[in-house]
Amino acid sequence: MNKYELVYVIDTALDDDARKVVIDRFNGMIEQEGGKVLKVDEWGKRRLAYPINYKTEGYYVLVNFESEATLPREIERTMQIAESILRYLIVKVEEKRSNVKPRPERKAPEAEEEIPAAEALEAAEEAPVAEPTEE
What we know:
With 135 residues, this protein is of the alpha+beta class. The protein has a domain at 2-93: Ribosomal protein S6/Translation elongation factor EF1B (Alpha-Beta Plaits, 2-Layer Sandwich). Helices cover 28% and strands 36% of the residues. It contains three helices and four strands. The chain has helices at 16-32, 71-81, 117-126, and strands spanning 2-11, 36-52, 55-67, 85-93.
């Protein structure tokens, strides 16, 4: 099963109940076709970047789901027909894979012994200090 993100914009002319019915309709469609809705995030009413059918605001919804590869095509077909959907976008979510190999752990050289901080401080105090010469 593949993971997908679906973002769609619902017409703000719909009341809250009708909007909830539209959201439940598409979530039910995903589950009915054998998919699994992972998360539904309602972003709410927002201003559109440009007018769509003379409308300047839309209600945004983000749905993360898992399904077979054929389901997104069916969702797009249904959303294209629905009059309450202004815009939609389905994107396949790829797992992040890195081509970078992890570095091997560095081991401290065994030959060098660490000097305790107190001894290092004493050695620094005993060291002669060069005085600047005036010219």
